[in-house]
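User: Please fill in residues for this 288-position structure.
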């Protein structure tokens, strides 16, 4: 899958940003209707790791083509994804997620476009969320298009594979996957409507963001007066395309991210800081 990522989680409490940078960001955003784009850096403080942050282990995620091509690939994916699902769903929204929900309720932002698949923005209370790369709590049939709640599929999968261990802690990936070695006897779930191939409703590497979903994300940027990017390195093409929309319309851009991003050169303000603390600080200053 292609959830974007940027920063690594830290147990230490970090300052939101230096005072001058925070003042500059507030000056840019105040009085404007703001669209928000988030990446994996927003969720690291909820215990979900990223792909590209400092200390992130090397990853070789399964591509969409591999998933389609072989039952063995699908067995490996579903076994690992099932083990990771329980840990993934136990994650809770953090201060940054809640700050964005508060900003939306106050009318400061018009919604959130997220490259994450964890559904934490919705759980934090955000109402208009575009899940650019889908969400792991839904499963779709690639044959008939039927959608299922992930909990339902997980219950079927557990019943069909009682041998599968459920360790108390697993090495969780940003897409809710873990590595599983013994998959020979694993039974892959199928669609209960047509018997077709099931897949979590997320965008894999090698798969395109649905046109209508990108159009919804673009509409948030088009309707805004500024763009706030939080926790994204803007490496993935979908994020860059939204940044392009903003810069073509000459919208001021504020980037909050620990480390370099591909949008730094186009940002009116760059805050090299943690998203949780910085978004909370921005909400405190921007909400009347």
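Assistant: Residues filled in for all 288 positions:
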């Amino acid at each position: 899958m292609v959830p974007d990522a940027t920063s690594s989680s830290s147990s230490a409490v970090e300052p939101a940003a230096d005072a001058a940078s925070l003042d500059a960001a507030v000056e840019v955003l105040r009085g404007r209707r703001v669209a928000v784009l988030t990446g994996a850096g927003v969720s690291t403080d909820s215990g979900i790791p990223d792909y590209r942050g400092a200390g992130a282990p090397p990853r070789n995620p399964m591509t969409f083509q591999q998933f389609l091509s072989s039952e063995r690939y699908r067995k490996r994916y579903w076994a690992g994804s099932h083990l990771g699902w329980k840990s993934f769903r136990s994650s809770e929204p953090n201060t940054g997620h809640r700050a964005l929900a508060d900003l939306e309720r106050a009318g400061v932002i018009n919604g959130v476009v997220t490259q994450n698949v964890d559904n934490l923005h919705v759980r934090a209370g955000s109402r208009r969320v575009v899940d650019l790369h889908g969400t792991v709590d839904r499963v779709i049939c690639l044959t008939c298009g039927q959608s299922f709640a992930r909990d339902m599929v997980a219950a079927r999968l557990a019943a069909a594979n009682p041998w599968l261990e459920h360790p108390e802690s697993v090495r969780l990936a940003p897409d809710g996957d873990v590595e599983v070695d013994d998959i020979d006897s694993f039974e892959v779930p199928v669609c209960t409507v047509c018997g077709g191939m099931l897949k979590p409703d997320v965008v894999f590497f090698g798969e395109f963001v649905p046109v209508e979903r990108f159009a919804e994300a673009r509409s948030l940027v088009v309707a805004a007066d500024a763009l706030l990017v939080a926790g994204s390195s803007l490496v993935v093409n979908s994020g860059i395309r939204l940044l392009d929309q903003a810069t073509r319309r000459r919208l001021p851009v504020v980037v909050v991210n620990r480390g370099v991003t591909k949008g730094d050169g186009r940002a009116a303000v760059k805050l090299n800081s943690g998203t949780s603390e910085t978004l909370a600080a921005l909400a405190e200053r921007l909400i009347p």
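For context: The beta strands are 34-38, 109-114, 129-131, 134-141, 147-149, 198-202, 226-230, 253-256, 269-271.
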